[in-house]
Amino acid sequence: MSEEIIQRNFSFCLKIIMFSRSVTKNLRFKIDNCPDKGYYESFKVGVDKLCHECYMKIVDFYRRQISTITRNIEVNNSMETDLIEINNLAETSESNISTNL
């Protein structure tokens, strides 16, 4: 997604982001610590566009979240596969024990 598209949709997205307290605090922290404070002071009602540095910080944060979610999905899939294999081994062992008795 290009910066222009994200900037254009940011006003709408900010309303959605406000429902998530941790993201809102993170976003407010980034805005409060933005080196270009004048950029935000020029807006009368909230923030409807980001300076480039804040935009990039949020994009990086988003990418890290997606990366973490992807890793968690991979780990869960791997654990499920391992559990299936363990279950199959247990069934095979039980079958072999029954046959040997």
Structure, described:
This is 26020_t:CDS:1. It comes from Dentiscutata erythropus. The chain contains 4 helices and no strands. The protein has one domain (3-75). The relative contact order is 0.08. It has 101 residues and is mostly helical.
Secondary structure blueprint with pairings:
Layout: H1 3-17, H2 21-32, H3 37-41, H4 52-100
Radius of gyration: 24 Å
Strand count, sense and closure of the main sheet? none
Q: Strand fraction band?
A: under 5%
N- to C-terminal distance: 64 Å
List how many beta strands DSSP finds: 0
Low-pLDDT regions: 17-21
Give the overall shape: rod-shaped
Helical proportion? over 70%
Helix and strand pattern: HHHH
Classify the oligomer.
single chain
SS summary, helix count: 4
Q: What is the mean predicted local confidence, pLDDT?
A: 66
Q: How many distinct domains?
A: 1
Q: Which structural class fits the helix and strand makeup?
A: mainly alpha
Kindly summarize this structure in a few lines.
Helix content is 80%, strand content 0%. The protein has 101 residues and is mainly alpha-helical. The protein starts with a helix and ends with a helix.
List keywords for this structure.
101 residues; mainly alpha; rod-shaped; 26020_t:CDS:1
